[in-house]
Each structure stands twice: as C-alpha cells, then as structure tokens.
Design brief:
The chain has 126 residues and is α+β, with helices and mostly antiparallel strands. It is 34% helix and 14% strand.
Length: 126
Amino acid sequence: MGFEGVLIATNPCGDGRSAGAGKGEVEGLVALVMGDIHSAPPVVRIHSQCLTGDVFGSLRCDCRLQLELAMRRIAKEGAGILLYEQQEGRGIGLMAKLKAYELQDQGMDTVESQRRVGICRRLPRV
C-alpha cells in the first residue's frame, strides 16, 4: 500500500486555528490508499483500532484477522482504501476494554462485563 498525506481542515469555519492535529489534538483516522481508486469502485474497509488484537494478537477478538484479510483483498484487487479509525474497540477505549476482559476472566459474560464498566449502557438486560 502506498501513502499519501492529505490534510482535511478540522475547522472549516476559519476562526484562525490551524487545520489538522496540533498540540493536544488527536487524528481521528488514517486512510491507506492503494492503486487507482477512481477507475472502478474500490474495495473499502473501515477498521476500528484494536491494540489488543491488531498488535498483540489477542484471541478474544478477530480484529487482526479482519485487518489482514482486508489488506490481502485490497492487494489482490490492486486498489482499495483502508480507513483505520483511532477509536479503540469501536470507541470504548483501551482501559475499559481491559477492565471488561478482567471481569470476563473472573467468569462474567461479555455483555455483563461491558455493562459493569459502562460500555453497553444501551443494551437491554436479558
């Protein structure tokens, strides 16, 4: 995959702040683009960052496998876009995810452990 840096203004109203990630700001996603994405509809994968799966190969999720499969598919097609979102575990955060894992190690099921750490507040009780 190639890399092309494109800065999209985070402040389209122009109040004098600089565009892009500055001190104290975090970039929300990285787009990895391969090949000619304009001649035909490209393969697109939106992937939420998963430190435990993507980097450490955790067996509690299939995130790394999904990421690898997407990159292989894009490479096979010769063109595509991988959007890598910086939102650990679909936005729950690394520490909350690790706390939920600890509760699961103590015998709690996934949904209840996530409720306990405040992740799944909207899920109905079963």
